[in-house]
Amino acid sequence: MTYELCMKSFQSCKATNVYCGLVIMIKLCIVVCAIFASTWAERRFIDPFRTVFDPPTEFQPLTTDDVKTAWIDMPIDHFDPQNRDTYRMRYMYNDEFFGGNGSPVFILVGGEWDIVPGWLRAGNMYLIAQENRGHQIYTEHRYYGESLPYQNLTTENLRFLNVDQALADLAYFIEDLKQTPRFANSKIVLYGGSYAANMVLWFKQRYPHLVVGGVASSGPIKGQVDFTGYLEVVHSAFSSEGGSGCISTIRQGITETIAAMRTAAGRQSLEKAYRLCSPLKYDSPFDLGVFSGLISWSFSTSVQQARPGTLIAICNNFANNVYGTTPMEQIGGYIASTRNLPADDCWDIDYESYVERYRTRNDNSRAWYYQTCTEYGYYQTAPRVGTVFDGLVWLSVPFYVDVCKQAYDPKFDEAFVSDAVERVNLVFGALQPDVNSTINIHGAIDPWHALGVHDRDLKEGSPTITVPRASHCFDMQGWRVSDTIAMTNAQQFARRTVAQWLAD
Ligand SMILES: *[C@@H]1O[C@H](CO)[C@@H](O)[C@H](O)[C@H]1NC(C)=O
Ligand SMILES: *[C@@H]1O[C@H](CO)[C@@H](O)[C@H](O)[C@H]1NC(C)=O
């Protein structure tokens, strides 16, 4: 979150381009303030699901002259002709490669995050645009970033937040684009990662007449309430990258932690090892759920962001006792290190304040948790197959669903969430989408691949590629020195296939 704040302030500086030196000084102040503010307000909050990916690293925030921001008036409800209300949807575009009449348009589909210009300045879609003389666009998803139908995200106001409306936004946007003489003859290709990869596949399925194809990176296209598979992959990622020594240290650390909860002396050493601000409420399963999340969400964040070498480095640190002495201290130290907990600070583990945050803040996190309650589930529960995370039984469906009830509506109970997920699976076909001309890319160590189609093509002409050692949305980035040949091949395959769609 802090990172996004910094990004935004640099961009507005560049956009206005006035008194930039002075403005940069103010921006620096804002960044510093943001960091300070975050140390007491924002930083301790751990958001378990929402994907926030940083744009490609080769992109420099201060050279984004060629990316412009624009807005389009969008119906709030595409499915009720009597409702004429509109909101302003934000998008960004980069025209540097456009070859004129008949040249293609590439749309990067926004998901549960703020759009930022860096994604139109580097990465695989940027290369595709360069190679095919394409115009690039990045659309923001309704209810995220600055594309807000309502300022106050009450549960009532969230009722127009669903993927059906978001796909219709995209259709309306593309129809509007095609009215512009400049793009009237342009073929359109979508690219999207994570939840936005679902959107690419579902858009191509529902609106096949509007786009010639789509690249879907790491799409978990099947909704699931009790998503044990997620932490199973986190386990196997550490196992395949770091080996059995690493797994056994993590297992000892977590086992020791759970055992420590049973005695007074154990509890004291646990609170010290994990640097907790105050004792845990050991008789509250939901407080233990948040504490379990501190552990599991830290390991899963490392895995989701991993490039080849990342997990090996963490495992080497475990082997060399870099994070602490006992296995439990090692886990606590790893979490503090990977989440940048300042030396004089501590973790405040408290279910009430965890829920309060979702209940009261009008931000991306509240919007996305709402979508998990009403569309996808995706609850990362404790596995039951012998992984290092099996013992964290407080990561349960009742724990995750209680947030739905408390933050949005008491009627959002397990039956409600389960029906909601079933609806989405029925409407979009879950693991059997009927979709032509798409590329479906997964990383074998990405925990989300467990809810995607990763072991077969979607159909002829809609190939699937699952890449060993690769993680979440790896292909969207630019080339990195740590990439394996298989990763680079997958990116090139996507570029070649898109070029073929355009040639047909
Ligand atoms: C949003 O609406 C709720 C319910 O009407 C109200 O209690 C709350 O103060 C509002 N929040 C903001 C930030 O306006
Ligand atoms: C996919 O393409 C095939 C062959 O061109 C066509 O027969 C079929 O109707 C298409 N399916 C969809 C869902 O568009």
Automatic annotation (TrEMBL):
Keyword Glycoprotein: yes
Annotated family: Belongs to the peptidase S28 family.
Gene name per UniProt: LOC112055200
Residues annotated as transmembrane: 18-41
PANTHER family named among the record's database cross-references: PROTEASE S28 PRO-X CARBOXYPEPTIDASE-RELATED, RE36938P-RELATED
GO MF annotations, alphabetized: peptidase activity
Lineage: Eukaryota, Metazoa, Ecdysozoa, Arthropoda, Hexapoda
Keyword set, alphabetical order: Glycoprotein, Hydrolase, Membrane, Protease, Signal, Transmembrane, Transmembrane helix
GO BP: proteolysis
Name of protein: Serine protease K12H4.7
